[in-house]
From TrEMBL, chain A:
The lineage of its organism: unclassified sequences, metagenomes, ecological metagenomes. InterPro entries: 2Fe-2S-bd_N (IPR042204), 2Fe-2S_ferredoxin-like_sf (IPR036010). One of its GO terms (molecular function) is iron-sulfur cluster binding. This is Unannotated protein. Keywords: Oxidoreductase. Pfam families: Fer2_4.
TrEMBL record, chain B:
InterPro entries: BFD-like_2Fe2S-bd_dom, BFD-like_2Fe2S-bd_dom_sf, FAD/NAD-bd_sf, FAD/NAD-binding_dom, Metab_Enz_Cyan_OpOx_G3PDH, Opine_Oxase_asu/HCN_bsu. Pfam families: Fer2_BFD, Pyr_redox_2. Keywords: Oxidoreductase. Residues 383-433 form the BFD-like [2Fe-2S]-binding domain. GO terms for molecular function: oxidoreductase activity. This is Unannotated protein. Coiled coil: none annotated.
Length: 93, 470
């Protein structure tokens, strides 16, 4: 099966084309995708189908993207979203 | 032109019925590939060693998708999120976000088949990473070939838990336990309905066989009442309890697991139906909301049909049947079918629908959600996941601020004001406020929970350039 590579918090993750970012991360052992705005609590995939907005990550510098809906693409930079994601980590293009 | 929103079983069936009758069809779907949640799939699904885990009825989905692709009358618009449907006198304006770009389409004839999502109940720890809905867990498998964890507990209520647990087991996960809050004895008075739906019976028995093959611990009259995190903040164990008929927790036990799939049936996605002010009603038995349709799946609005889960939760077979009826009826409106032809096509479908609706109704009464679940909640249990509102804050808004309905609680506490727009906690908050305030929610309370003028979060720039939002 064809594979592609993207990055989560700077670390390489391998995925199958068509997989969601959230699924590929889960496969690589990553369950925590973000921390909440108010209580700074860890959150991960919950509904898995784009309804709950709990799996929000920053993709190529754009915050609030649903990891469960967004399909993996070669070399994208995904980071764990802190709070509202309004101030993405520097250098995340 | 007939426009269909939603490319799951109902939308596919409607598109084929209308398109193959000679009508021009535009099928709008938010996913990259047609099939809905039921037939979610990867672009190439050949080279995986665990195909048997997701084979259930998959061939049928492939056939329908192929027929759609071959039909010259059906145009498919994928990756297209309808974020608003605005009703006008002579037409409906659909506002879309297609691959991040805004676009509008004016349509005169519409079939809505927007489907459903898992119904969740809040409980202590349900926001810990590792806790998912059964639909989400199955979606990982079907659409990604990924397991949600290695040691999985499947819980909640409903027949859907069976294929979820069976599929995950076949794909190599250890299913530590399958817990259903309801007992199978609820089926006894309805067994004649099961016998009239033999395909369903066979399907169910097949799942039980798989569960037996993998020696999965099954417990009915039990529920997960708390999820517990380990030192890394992710799920480490669940607290399970035997529960009475009213869901009150009794004897408790802790089970180690790294993943929990928990769900309580399904909630119809009625956001677009609400945009169009389609007449909706509430099912007496479980207070679920549905779009009212007539014999031909016509809604209260002229030239707008509805099919599938939004007309009442009933599974993919009923969705297919309703989709066909809506598709043929819409095609007949354009003269693509004569009255006699329509009658001939509808006759077997109407009988089929009647049988399937009876089964759906038996399911709903066999897997009720009883109010005792609210006793599992602690004061600091998160109820609204988006806005991080606790049970205590909701209680305070009732006892200290005098709120007596979910809408007022929302204004005081921000429940349902987050990005999911109350899709996850909305129904639960209505139930909690009803119980805590002692004032029964009204039918309108349930219906207005899915009122979302803008259906999905948008970049402001899209809104700025959108014409005539009404």
């Amino acid at each position: 099966m064809k594979k592609l590579t993207f990055f989560f918090d700077g670390i390489e993750v391998s995925a199958i084309p068509g997989q969601s970012i959230g699924a590929a991360l889960l496969e690589s052992g990553t369950k925590v995708l973000r921390s909440t705005r108010i209580e700074n609590k860890p959150r991960g995939m919950f509904c898995g189908i784009g309804v709950c907005f709990d799996c929000l990550v920053v993709i190529n510098g754009v915050p609030n993207q649903r990891a469960c809906l967004t399909e993996v693409a070669e070399a994208i930079q995904v980071i764990n979203q802190q709070g509202s994601g309004a101030y993405p980590i520097e250098g995340a293009s | 032109m007939i426009t269909i929103i939603g490319g799951g079983p109902a939308g596919l069936a409607a598109a084929l019925a209308a398109g193959e009758s000679g009508s021009k069809v535009l099928l709008i779907d938010s996913a990259p590939r047609l099939g809905g949640q039921y037939w979610r799939h990867l672009p190439e699904n050949g080279a995986w060693g665990k195909q048997e885990a997701i084979r259930h009825d998959f061939e049928k989905g492939n056939q329908l998708r192929q027929r759609v692709a071959q039909s010259v009358n059906i145009e498919v618009l994928s990756n297209a999120h309808v974020w608003r449907a605005s009703p006008h006198d002579e037409h409906i304006t659909l506002h879309l976000l297609v691959g991040g770009v805004g676009r509008t389409i004016d349509v005169k004839n519409l079939i809505l088949s927007t489907g459903a999502y898992d119904r969740s109940l809040p409980f202590p720890g349900w926001d810990i990473p590792g806790v998912m809905t059964p639909g989400g867990a199955q979606g990982l498998l079907k659409g990604n070939y990924v397991l949600p964890g290695k040691r999985i507990v499947v819980a909640g209520t409903g027949p859907f838990l069976l294929p979820v647990a069976a599929g995950l087991a076949e794909a190599g996960a250890e299913i530590v336990a399958l817990l259903d809050a309801n007992r199978l004895t609820r089926w006894i008075p309805k067994f004649h309905i099961v016998l009239a739906n033999r395909a369903k019976l066979r399907e169910g028995l097949g799942y039980f066989q798989t569960l037996a093959k993998y020696k999965i611990r099954q417990q009915r009259g039990s529920a997960v009442i708390q999820a517990n995190a380990g030192s890394d903040g992710t799920l480490e164990s669940v607290t399970i309890a035997t529960i009475g008929r009213n869901f009150r927790a009794k004897a408790q036990e802790i089970i180690k697991c790294d993943s929990l799939a928990v769900g309580w049936g399904f909630t119809a996605d009625l956001s677009l139906a609400s945009n169009l002010n389609l007449k909706q009603d509430v099912l007496e038995e479980d207070k679920s909301v549905f779009v009212t349709v007539d014999e031909m799946q016509r809604t209260s609005m002229q030239n707008v049909f509805a099919a599938g889960e939004i007309t009442g939760i009933g599974g993919h077979q009923l969705s297919l049947t309703e989709g066909k009826i809506a598709g043929f009826a819409a095609a007949a409106q354009f003269g693509h079918l004569t009255d006699v032809e329509l009658k001939g096509k509808l006759e077997p479908l109407l009988a089929q629908r009647k049988k399937e609706r009876k089964f759906a109704s038996a399911l709903i009464s066999s897997y009720p959600v009883k109010p005792g679940w609210q006793e599992w909640l602690a004061p600091d249990t998160c109820i609204c996941r988006c806005e991080e509102v606790t049970m205590e804050q909701i209680q305070d808004s009732i006892t200290e601020l005098g709120a007596t309905d979910a809408r007022t609680v929302k204004l005081f506490t921000r429940t349902g004001m987050g990005m999911c727009q109350g899709r996850i906690c909305g129904r639960a908050v209505i139930d909690i406020v009803g119980r805590e305030s002692g004032i029964n929610p009204t039918i309108q309370d349930y219906i207005s929970a899915s009122s979302r003028p803008i259906v999905t979060p948008l970049p402001l720039g899209i809104l700025e350039h959108a014409p005539h939002i009404e």
